[in-house]
Design brief:
The structure holds 3 protein chains of 3 kinds.
Chain A (H helix, E strand, L loop, with lengths): L2 E8 L2 E8 L4 H8 L18 E4 L2 E4 L12 E3 L12 H8 L9 H14 L5 H7 L11 H20 L1
Parallel strand pairs in A: 1-5
Antiparallel strand pairs in A: 1-2, 3-4, 3-5
Chain B lengths: L6 E3 L4 H11 L3 E4 L5 H6 L7 E4 L9 E4 L2 E5 L4 H6 L1 H6 L1 H7 L5 H4 L4 H6 L7 H8 L2 E6 L2 E6 L4 E3 L2 E2 L6 E8 L5 E9 L6 E12 L2 E10 L6 E2 L1 H7 L6 H14 L10 H23 L1
Parallel strand pairs in B: 1-3, 2-3
Antiparallel strand pairs in B: 4-5, 5-10, 6-7, 6-10, 8-9, 11-12, 12-13, 13-14
Chain C lengths: L11 E2 L43 H5 L15 E7 L5 E7 L1 H4 L4 E6 H6 L4 E3 L5 E3 L5 E2 L5 E7 L2 H9 L2 E6 L6 H4 L16 E8 L1 H10 L2 E12 L8 E7 L4 E6 L4 H12 L6 E4 L15 H13 L3 E4 L2 H7 L2 E13 L5 E11 L28 E9 L6 E3 L7 H19 L3 H8 L8 E2 L5 E2 L4 H12 L1 H13 L3 E10 L11 E2 L2 E2 L2 E7 L5 E5 L8 H13 L6 E5 L16 H28 L6 E4 L2 E4 L2 E7 H10 L10 E6 L8 E10 L6 E11 L6 H20 L31 E4 L17 H18 L13 H10 L5
Parallel strand pairs in C: 1-10, 2-15, 13-14, 16-19, 17-18, 26-27, 33-34
Antiparallel strand pairs in C: 2-8, 3-7, 3-9, 4-8, 5-6, 10-18, 11-16, 12-13, 12-15, 16-17, 20-21, 22-32, 23-24, 25-26, 25-31, 28-29, 29-30, 32-33
The chains are: A alpha+beta, B alpha+beta, C alpha+beta.
């Protein structure tokens, strides 16, 4: 099995490591970097609990090898809040009760972040389709949709203000 | 679920990738989007000794029109189809399919080339490309060759690519005036494979169907065209009866197997319904 | 009627004892139904009724929760499990030599190894036995066969591939009806060679038979409530950390009931209970699936004990879906009788429970079929008789809950389907028919024919509200027009009654441990507090709602109250969180402990104010002299005095513990209406609207209640239309991944429309009832009734859940309808 020297920027910080070819990106993030906000929920690319952003796009980090992310910019839930300020999505999830057990939440947040970057003003239907790669067992999704709507509005207000 | 051990290569050029393929033979697997391959490896259903990751090869990801064709680089992500103005405005059949392949996260990594090269009759692109009459470009040690999509799929998960060839591009003929296409898929939930899906590309002239190609998803061991259904349409005014006849022809010529998605009888009848509805939608778009 | 049981076999008969427990002070015997949520504390206190943002959320939205797989201890080893590819097979040989030669592999643990310590079998929560690791044979597909301990999870996974097990396959027992024939015996370890586990009866058979003999109308239907899996997004797992120096076994574990688990571990392993610490950290969803002890937990603990190092075991999704406890799997043959006026008079049920290879249900001991006998539901039915049998099959043991309190879902599905059929048969609108047959508000407390005393209810109010909200009459008109045009539209109602909050200690226990629950509140000198509970949130929001109950009772801001659960070294003993029991039991304990504190605070306040206790009155957060609110001591003043200036004849400190034994269960209820459009061509069912009116008594936090209802509805939708664990004829599980076990996404899940009525529980100290599971209980029949309603005129009377496109298509084609 080949070993590889990789450098991945995670939440803006470069991390270098020597990894086995088969190390899954999600394990690199969780075990090597101790960023345990990214979760694992299935083996079939079905649940989205492991969703991170790679170069700004939401992907399932259990279906990618760490070596593939060499040189990439990875964003995880731990990097969302800036300067002690929650991201509008985090705020929305809190305000609107968009989470219960919290296990799917980091993946949902990352998916929603990518969704809003492509479509800043999504309809309810577009939100539902946009997060359809992420399973939640607790919330019934209503309040996740509301949370994303809250964030979309807030982000647009911030844009106008800027 | 942990994949078995393998050696990993990430060639920078196509030539390098091909020579790695030549070197490692059937031990090697191409890693494109990885959205089918990596889960299979995690279940140790796939145990390649060598992975050749073609994600770092420049120039394999593009969507452009050239000489009456839409050229799709093999490494074009499914999500790029959704985000492409050309695809959304002119290639409706492809645009329909792009929205229902797997789920939005998977589409951010999954590639058009990978979807076709995997040659899974449950995948959506095979039927789409069959309906378009697309051409597949394959690069190997002896250069590049064209493979007509009708000659591409040879068996379950098998295709006419040589062991040392890489699928590099898919060419879809630009729809002529009077041509319309659609893809309709019934899945159990988002992210599922189709119970049955139909891809239809029709050309209409003065109320008569002058050309028709129909591809079917997940109702046969090998991705298939519904040729009898096509014949039922060509040269006809597409009345309800003609469309019904085409649906029935498709139901008869498909070859589904029973699984958790449904019985053979259900899948056949569903194929009839899906083909009919897709024909109607394609007709609307052709006019 | 088919009777499945063998009349020669011993019978369990429901022998609940009627003992009235004292109703706590402050609970009102007379209740009225309202819609207004009472709020009596200011926002800064945030007592009951406030839409308080959850206190636990900041850690979760920032990726700082701590789930079991996040626990990392120095020198930690990893466990992986070899599982059986057969549902039923003798184990001839286990060859682990190649695995043991691998670098990084420390041990392979087999059933024989455990046998040496007497740990190869363990008790289930229903006092049956279950293999930890087999010594002779496997009895279900994906059963644990042996375990590998390695330095790394990748190496452990490789080692699993290098263990070679020689099996001699035996016939699988997949069909529970076939199991009754005892041709192939699943549990050959038992003294009596039969697949029958128990027989249970409730109600008066003779009276019921007589009612049926005289009934004018009878509907009869066989239904299967299929096997499903909770599939919380976090799978099960543990880190067992045995320290040979202190002889202490610390176990981080995905468990909903840490104390009960500690006691079971002590009894099973012989380790002294004070040397076992179970820590249930953040739990990524439980829903009942994290109540049982699974073999992996025991093997992991043994591995840590033997190796003296921490051992982590985390299931993967396939293991979770294939081997963990299932829910439901009840076969029901049910009959409902009505008199000449259409009044429901009798209910007769024969049931068969498929328990898999062990009765590993998580019911109270006396209730082998859980609380199924609540099956007369929301209707005033004079005679009911339930006959139930259970069998072993070669499937994983169960059944546990699936966000449902002890088999109420099965009961509700049955009665709501039958009632709908009866209404349709009689040509009466199903809403009107329910109104006619409901237990009426003035009949509460209502005693059912099967011995339940419903505490409070107002069923017509909830149904009326649901009908108004959805525009019922207009929908019926639309349906009639559509039917004229050949379009298929259906409206389905479910008016369910839940029974939760187990329970009165007299009748409810798990392995002999009574089902009370506990709260311990300590007020710090500066007026802040910590409260600990015997329950364990898995997302329900206890850190917020318990704090709000205490804030309501003591006036300490909810944000000043730290709520802790899940560590058996610190939390008071309790039975845990499942079956919607936390609010009825631990929530009550929180109020009762707070009231004890308030009573002591009164003495301190009297001392500080130099007034007599009789002259003081409580006002939100202070004891004040009656009539002079400026002469007052706030709870914060009193807390400080409790440590600095308390009366000489009073102990220092301000804390209290309460072990709450509820006087009765609580009976939440609701009415749901679902509107569907059915595609004639494909059999697809599209849920156009779904209105849910829930009544869970007094509401602690409306935001949390809405969230619980939404989530429960999606978990009701799931088995109604998507989820089922399927086996082939060889007993192989065909739904072992999320690619085939279909959890609804945000696309399949409709936009739920919710509302409430409030009919407080008369015996609960804060009038609350519990809500988490109501929607999972109530939703499936609303959906099924809607689909059947759309097809009734075509002659369709029933479709078993999950209602897949294929089943609907089949019904349509059988009726000659196509597209």
């Amino acid at each position: 099995m080949s070993k590889h020297s990789i450098t991945i920027s995670v939440n803006g910080t470069d991390h270098s490591a020597e990894v086995d070819s088969r190390l899954l990106l999600v394990h690199f993030i969780r075990e090597n970097l101790d960023l345990t906000g990214t979760h694992i929920g299935c083996d079939t690319t079905s649940c989205g609990a492991c969703t991170v952003l790679i170069n700004g796009r939401a992907v399932k980090s259990c279906t990618m090898f760490a070596v593939q992310a060499n040189g990439a910019e990875v964003d995880t839930v731990e990097g969302m809040a800036e300067g002690g300020q929650l991201h509008p999505l985090q705020e929305g999830f809190w305000e609107k009760h968009g989470l219960q057990c919290g296990y799917c939440t980091p993946g949902m947040l990352m998916s929603a972040k990518h969704l809003l970057s492509k479509n800043p003003n999504p309809t309810e239907d577009e939100i539902r389709w946009g997060i359809s790669g992420n399973l939640c067992r607790c919330t019934g999704y209503n309040k996740i949709v509301e949370a994303i709507q809250y964030a979309a509005e807030k982000l647009q207000q911030e844009e106008v203000a800027a | 679920m942990i994949p078995g051990e393998f050696d990993y290569h990430s060639p920078q050029t196509l030539a390098e990738a091909i020579s790695l393929l030549v070197e490692h033979g059937d031990e090697a697997k191409i890693l494109a989007g990885g959205q089918s391959l990596i889960p299979a490896m995690r279940f140790r259903l796939a145990l390649p000794g060598t992975l050749i990751d073609i994600n770092r090869i420049d120039g394999l990801s593009y969507l452009r029109e050239e000489n009456g064709h839409l050229l799709i680089g093999a490494m074009t992500r499914e999500s790029a189809l959704e985000e492409s103005d050309i695809v959304q405005s002119k290639y409706h059949l492809l645009a329909d399919a792009a929205a229902v392949i797997a789920d939005p996260l998977v589409r951010n990594l999954a590639t058009v080339g990978g979807n076709i090269a995997h040659s899974d009759p449950a995948n959506d692109h095979p039927a789409v490309m069959l309906a378009y009459g697309a051409t597949v470009m394959a690069a190997g040690p002896n250069g590049t060759r064209r493979i007509a999509i009708d000659d591409f799929f040879t068996d379950l998960f098998e295709n006419s690519l040589e062991e040392n060839e890489i699928l590099t591009e898919i060419r879809i003929p630009t729809p002529a005036a009077g041509t319309g296409g659609a893809y309709l898929k019934l899945e159990r939930k988002v992210g599922d494979y189709a119970i049955s899906a139909a891809a239809v590309q029709l050309t209409m002239s003065g109320g008569t169907c002058t050309a028709a190609r129909i591809g079917l998803t997940n109702v046969s061991p090998v991705p298939m065209r519904a040729k009898n259904a096509e014949q039922a349409l060509v040269g006809q005014t597409l009345t309800d009866d003609v469309i019904e006849a085409a649906g029935q022809a498709a139901a008869a010529e498909c070859d589904p197997s029973q699984d958790l998605r449904g019985s053979v009888a259900y899948k056949r009848d569903l194929t009839r319904v899906m083909v009919k509805r897709t024909i109607r939608k394609a007709m609307e778009r052709a006019n | 009627m088919t009777v499945y049981h063998d009349p020669n076999k011993p019978r369990h008969v429901d022998d609940r004892v009627e003992v009235k427990h004292p109703v706590p002070e402050g609970a009102s015997a007379k209740v009225e139904t309202t819609e207004q949520i009472a709020v009596t504390t200011p926002p800064e206190v945030c007592g009951m009724g406030h839409r308080m943002k959850r206190k636990e959320d900041p850690r979760f939205i920032q990726g700082r929760g701590q789930y079991v797989d996040d626990v990392k201890l120095p020198g930690m080893l990893y466990m992986d499990i070899v599982r059986s590819p057969y549902a039923h097979a003798k184990i001839l040989d286990i060859d682990a030599s190649a695995a043991l030669e691998m670098d990084g592999v420390l041990a392979v643990i087999t059933g024989k190894d455990l046998e040496a310590h007497g740990l190869h079998w363990m008790p289930t929560l229903m006092s049956d036995t279950q293999m930890v690791l087999p010594t002779e044979k496997v009895v279900y597909y994906a059963q644990e066969v042996c375990a590998v301990i390695a330095t790394d999870r990748y190496i452990a996974a490789d080692a699993v591939e290098n263990i070679f097990v020689d099996y001699d396959p035996l016939d699988a027992v997949v069909d529970p009806f076939k199991a009754l024939e005892d041709e192939t015996i699943v549990r050959t370890d038992k003294e009596v060679q039969t697949n029958r586990i128990w027989h249970w009866e409730v109600g008066d058979q003779a009276a019921t038979d007589e009612v049926f003999a005289n009934a004018k109308h009878v509907v009869k239907q066989y239904m299967h409530i299929p096997r499903i899996h909770v599939a919380s997004i976090e799978t099960c797992g543990m880190v067992a950390n045995y320290n040979p120096a202190t002889e202490k076994m610390q176990i981080y574990m995905t468990t909903q009931a840490p104390h009960a688990i500690r006691t079971v571990f002590a009894l099973v392993t012989g380790l002294p209970e004070h040397k076992i610490q179970i820590i249930s950290p953040d739990i990524g969803g439980g829903f009942g699936g994290k109540v049982p002890v699974y073999p992996g937990y025991v093997i992991g603990a043994v591995a840590s004990l033997l190796l003296g190092k921490p051992v982590k075991w985390i299931e993967d999704r396939s293991e979770n879906l294939q081997a963990d406890s299932f829910a439901r799997d009840y076969h029901l043959e049910a009959e409902l009788a009505a008199d000449e006026n259409g009044k429901l008079v009798g209910l007769r049920v024969n049931g068969l429970a498929d328990h898999g290879a062990a009765d590993a249900a998580a019911n109270p001991s006396k209730f082998p079929a859980g609380l199924f006998s609540i099956c007369s539901g929301s209707y005033d039915i004079e005679a009911t008789h339930v006959n139930f049998d259970a069998v072993y099959t070669t499937k994983p043991p169960g059944g546990v809950a699936y966000r449902c309190s002890f088999r109420v879902t099965e009961a509700v599905h049955m009665i709501e389907r039958l009632t709908d059929m009866m209404a349709h048969d009689l040509g009466i609108d199903p809403a009107e028919y329910r109104m006619q047959n409901f237990i009426q508000p003035e009949q509460f407390p209502y005693k059912s024919a099967t011995g339940w005393e419903y505490d409070s209810g107002n069923y017509p109010a909830a149904l009326k509200k649901a009908m108004d909200m959805i525009g019922y009459d207009e929908l019926r008109r639309e349906q009639a027009e559509k039917r004229e045009r050949g379009e298929l539209m259906g409206i389905g109602i479910s008016s369910f009654t839940e029974v939760v909050g187990a329970g009165p200690a007299k009748d409810y226990d798990i392995l002999g441990i009574k089902m009370f629950d506990s709260a311990e509140i300590r007020i710090h000198p500066t007026g802040k507090a910590i409260a600990r509970f015997g329950t364990k949130s898995q997302g329900q929001g206890h850190e917020t709602t318990y704090a709000q109950i205490i804030a309501q009772e003591l006036g300490i801001p909810a944000n000043d109250i730290e709520v802790e659960e899940g560590d058996t070294d610190t939390a008071p003993y309790g039975l845990g969180t499942y079956a919607s029991r936390s609010t009825p039991t631990a929530g009550a304990a929180a109020a009762m402990a707070a009231r004890k504190i308030r009573a002591k605070a009164k003495k301190i306040a009297a001392h500080l104010l130099e007034a007599s206790e009789e002259d003081l009155e409580w006002n939100v957060n202070q004891w004040q002299v009656k009539g002079s609110p400026d002469q007052a001591k706030t709870i914060q003043d009193i807390a400080f005095a409790a440590y600095t200036n308390h009366p000489d004849d009073l102990e220092a400190g301000l804390e209290a513990t309460d072990y709450y034994n509820p006087p009765n269960l609580t009976f939440p209820f609701g009415s749901y209406i679902c509107v569907v459009d059915v595609d004639k061509g494909t059999g697809e069912v599209h849920i156009r609207r779904f209105v849910a009116i829930d009544d869970c008594g007094n509401i602690i936090n409306p935001l949390v209640v809405e969230g619980q209802v939404h989530g429960g509805l999606t978990m009701g939708l799931a088995p109604a239309m998507f989820e089922e664990i399927v086996y082939d004829e060889y007993g192989t599980c065909l739904t072992g991944t999320f690619a085939d076990y279909l959890l609804p996404t945000a696309v399949e899940s409709p936009k739920w429309e919710t509302g409430h009525t409030i009919t407080p529980s008369p015996h609960h100290p804060i009038g609350a009832k519990g809500v988490g599971e109501s929607p999972t209980v109530g939703a499936p029949p609303a959906i099924a009734n809607a689909v059947v309603d759309a097809l009734w005129h075509l002659g369709v009377r029933h479709i078993d859940i999950p209602i897949t496109p294929q089943k609907v298509w089949q019904a349509l084609r059988d009726a000659g309808v196509s597209d």
